[in-house]
């Protein structure tokens, strides 16, 4: 047999290595460049057309039913990953939390948040850490929250008094709940209600509506023309809100320059920080944080009270049980509701959890953005990809919740499932580093009003028709129509 000459050996070795390298490249590229599945995209618009006619969290749930809990969607030219399962939510907010600790640059949020200098939209880093720490220490720890008890007591009692005067006639609960909750935040964080509170609430609500949709400019971020066109309305609204926020700062500054010797509130602390800090906070930065507290503290908690009351009206058995509990606890002890005995209201706490399961106030949480390319479940997530977590759909997934669409507070009565960021099937406050820091503040602003509304009054719908539960369009989950009810006094307000 003739031996191969050295040329043939070199040639065959080269050919072998060449094929091997090609295969390795092919194999590794199919493995690492695979995006999660998703519907086919159309040229230019991507999947944007699939959002027409329904609320974003509903559309995304329907699409996830078809394409799975880890889905890739193109909105315009922007890649989005949609997460619709507790396991994958845990991957994003726990396993890869640091990589997803940034927020995307969204035009409306950027304008409203003074160039992303608030807590919600600022990039993960020292500036964000400092601001979040100040707000937590000054306003949001459970000790600080408790210290505001008299403010809550006054504001909620005022509402109860007003309801008492409408005995037997139709009372618009929505129109009165929201100002009350904003009042609590304003007094706790800034010392008093704003002079322009009503206008301010209206403008903030308009802002939130605008932020809930997909602005065309955000679908094509590199188009300066689209950005210029989209800015007009949101900038006008922002200028109006800005005037109120500047007013709050100016008043505090004037007070600091006088001989005022009262306690410092959050704005005083931020102004002090403005002078001392290495970050040299501007007035705009402070206004951005004030707004965080207003939106975080006002809108979300009132919406939860409103949905909780709505569901109880649809489920008289639940309403009856919650009322019996509140009346049992407070008739025995004091004859009026105060915060000292709220911890006995275990059924009411389950009602609140069930409300947040079905109506998480921020249904798609606040979007995250990947810093670096990473792999999850064998799929590649490129750097700077937007991630949207559908907490609303996860809370209604029959795989994790029996009778998922029914309002059944009992499911929480002897259950350890909580919303503090460790049970990923129940994440109304998010999880991980960017989780909501306002849980303690929120809970007291929900529990006290609900307990008082149930203690003092029975409630009836104005007509025999079933209560309309349509959701409004916006970044927060609100009722489309105001909740109007007839109160019947059962325990008159004594003091
Ligand atoms: C029912 C009431 C509330 C709900 C459902 C809620 C929900 C949320 C959610 C889902 C997030 C985003 C979390 C994430 O990205 O993982 C968030 C962030 C935030 N919330 Fe809340 N929130 C509520 C009340 C409050 C209150 C009372 C405050 C303050 C007074 C507040 C202040 C904030 C702030 C500052 C952030 C941004 C955190 C960050 O990016 O580091 N929230 N909230």
TrEMBL record:
Alphabetical keyword list? Heme, Iron, Membrane, Metal-binding, Monooxygenase, Oxidoreductase, Transmembrane, Transmembrane helix
Q: Which family does it belong to?
A: Belongs to the cytochrome P450 family.
Q: What name is this protein filed under?
A: Cytochrome P450
Recorded superkingdom: Eukaryota
Q: Which organism is it from?
A: Clitoria ternatea (Butterfly pea)
Q: What one GO molecular function would you report for this record? A: monooxygenase activity
Q: What is the lineage of its organism?
A: Eukaryota, Viridiplantae, Streptophyta, Embryophyta, Tracheophyta
SUPFAM superfamilies, per this entry?
Answer: Cytochrome P450
- Required co-factors: heme
Q: Which residue windows are transmembrane per the record?
A: 6-25
List positions binding heme. Answer: 436
